[in-house]
Amino acid sequence: METTRLSTKGQITLPKKIRVARGWAPGTEFTLEESGDGILIRPAARSPQWEFDEVAGCLRYSGKPKTLAEMREGIKQAVKRRYERSRT
Length: 88
Prior knowledge:
The protein has helices at residues 16-22, 52-55, 68-86; strands spanning 30-35, 38-43. By secondary structure, the chain is α+β, with helices and mostly antiparallel strands.
């Protein structure tokens, strides 16, 4: 098991053995997620940039179109569920 220490600037250095094994170079971005009694660190997935015209309509939906208010409520509920999962 590798250990590291939090600096006075709030920084953590990942041990070289882990960086090399994972292929993480300087500048690699990470996401942090609170989970139980710690945090989960993952490399941030880089998604390619697409133009709207290239992706519009790529997901099929056969139901009644949702209103903006319904979409906002759905997002709100999903965030709430995710937050509650992270608290357990």
